[in-house]
Design brief:
By secondary structure, this protein is α/β, with parallel strands linked by helices. It has one domain: Response regulator (Rossmann fold), CATH 3.40.50. Helix content is 40%, strand content 20%. The protein has three helices and four strands, in the order E-H-E-H-E-H-E. The protein has a four-stranded parallel beta sheet with strand order 2-1-3-4, sandwiched between helices. Strand 1, helix 1 and strand 2 form a beta-alpha-beta unit. The radius of gyration is 13 Å and the shape is globular.
Length: 92
């Protein structure tokens, strides 16, 4: 079982992005708990099993901000928060 410091809570409402991120995170040696709705994300944050929160760009800013604040409050002293920004593509 992974320690909370090496567990990532990944939140996206896009199933394909969620699967891709989970595979990439696991390949990096981390554990992952993937959730696709706000209620599940809140539950996992309150359980305190993850030391890293990754929020997809598909999540509206008010929700991602609220979850990040909850995460910081629940896990103060051992937290990392990140918001995955929408990728940009430039045409040549």
């Amino acid at each position: 079982m992974q320690k909370p410091e090496t567990m990532v809570l990944s939140f996206s409402n896009d199933p394909e992005l969620l699967r891709e991120r989970e595979a990439a995170i696991r390949n990096g040696g981390f554990g992952v708990i993937s959730v696709s709705n706000e209620t599940a994300a809140r539950f996992e944050i309150e359980m305190g099993r993850c030391g890293v929160l990754l929020i997809c760009y598909t999540i509206p800013p008010p929700i991602s901000g609220e979850l990040a604040s909850l995460f910081r409050a629940e896990l103060s002293g051992r937290t990392d928060c990140g918001r995955n920004e929408r990728p940009t593509c430039k045409r040549r």
